[in-house]
């Protein structure tokens, strides 16, 4: 059985069949990413590896016991403690990812995706990538035929995000670029092609002229800022660039 399982493609965040909705309706395999749930405030992402164990205050859990069980299963340690093995959805990933920056959480992510009207097939430009929290949900929204191009000027941060997208199985939907978007704007090759642009930058008003150039005629822009002064400056520039 395990020989057969080894030869199959491991499951990450999205179903590999392009016409299917995201589905975790299959059994856990060696190499899968799972979210180990202890309690609502204690979860972690673990890649299943047949010879490995997970050790926590509830005991020692053998990964080999997890293989072949459905996502959502309750699994037991040698001393009778238990955890749940959940599917790695973007909602859960946002709660377990390593915070390299401030991130967007589910409430804001939902709002952004709805108001930007992001649907399968969209081409989305984003900056900065940060910890990739929003990017992960953008990827699910544009799948299976769209694409997210995300830019950050911090090389290491961009590389870590790329590693995460590889781990979550989203790398075919996301391209990461290292670029100073406030200084240089988005690459010219996207001019007039973007369905949506999302900005989470310290001085977003500097990037708005470029964002306007990138958008399709009926494209949508969202700029996310924590301070009202940033919002005011962005609105001033928006008024001169958008209808
Ligand atoms: C708050 S974080 C973005 C968090 C992201 N929205 C998330 O949900 O994980 C802001 C990011 O913008 C990046 N950044 C700041 N100035 C930039 C610039 N001029 N060009 C590109 N990225 C920039 C920072 O390196 C940082 O990673």
Automatic annotation (TrEMBL):
Subcellular localization, as worded in the UniProt entry: Nucleus
InterPro entries: SAM-dependent_MTases_sf (IPR029063), TRM61_C (IPR049470), tRNA_MeTrfase_Gcd14 (IPR014816)
GO biological process per UniProt: tRNA methylation
Enzyme Commission number(s): 2.1.1.220
UniProt-annotated binding residues for S-adenosyl-L-methionine: 131-134, 152, 180, 200
One Gene Ontology CC term in the entry: tRNA (m1A) methyltransferase complex
Top-level taxonomic group: Eukaryota
Gene3D superfamilies membership: 3.10.330.20, Vaccinia Virus protein VP39 (3.40.50.150)
Top-level enzyme category: transferase
Entry's Gene Ontology molecular function annotations: tRNA (adenine(58)-N1)-methyltransferase activity
Entry keywords, A to Z: Methyltransferase, Nucleus, S-adenosyl-L-methionine, Transferase, tRNA processing
SUPFAM superfamilies (UniProt xref): S-adenosyl-L-methionine-dependent methyltransferases
Keyword Cell inner membrane: no
Span of domain tRNA (adenine(58)-N(1))-methyltransferase catalytic subunit TRM61 C-terminal: 81-240
Protein name: tRNA (adenine(58)-N(1))-methyltransferase
Taxonomic lineage of the native organism: Eukaryota, Viridiplantae, Streptophyta, Embryophyta, Tracheophyta
């Amino acid at each position: 059985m395990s020989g057969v399982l080894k030869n199959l493609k491991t499951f990450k965040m999205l179903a590999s069949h392009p016409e299917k909705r995201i589905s975790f309706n299959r059994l856990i395999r060696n190499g899968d990413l799972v979210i180990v749930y202890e309690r609502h405030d204690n979860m972690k992402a673990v890649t299943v590896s047949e010879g490995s164990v997970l050790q926590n205050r509830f005991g020692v859990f053998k990964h080999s016991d997890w293989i072949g069980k459905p996502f959502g299963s309750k699994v037991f340690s040698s001393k009778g403690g238990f955890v749940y093995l959940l599917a790695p959805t973007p909602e859960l990933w946002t709660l377990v990812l390593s915070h390299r920056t401030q991130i967007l959480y589910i409430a804001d992510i939902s709002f952004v995706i709805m108001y930007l009207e992001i649907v399968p097939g969209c081409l989305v430009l984003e900056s900065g990538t940060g910890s990739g929290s929003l990017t992960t949900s953008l990827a699910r929204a544009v799948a299976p035929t769209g694409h997210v191009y995300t830019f950050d000027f911090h090389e290491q941060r961009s590389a870590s995000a790329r590693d995460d997208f590889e781990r979550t199985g989203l790398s075919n939907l996301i391209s990461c670029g290292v670029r100073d978007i406030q200084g240089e704007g988005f690459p010219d090759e996207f001019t007039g092609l973007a369905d949506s642009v999302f900005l989470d930058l310290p001085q977003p008003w500097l990037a708005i002229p470029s964002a306007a150039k990138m958008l399709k005629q009926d494209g949508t822009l969202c700029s996310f800022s924590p301070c009202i002064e940033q919002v005011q400056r962005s609105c001033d520039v928006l008024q001169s660039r958008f209808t």
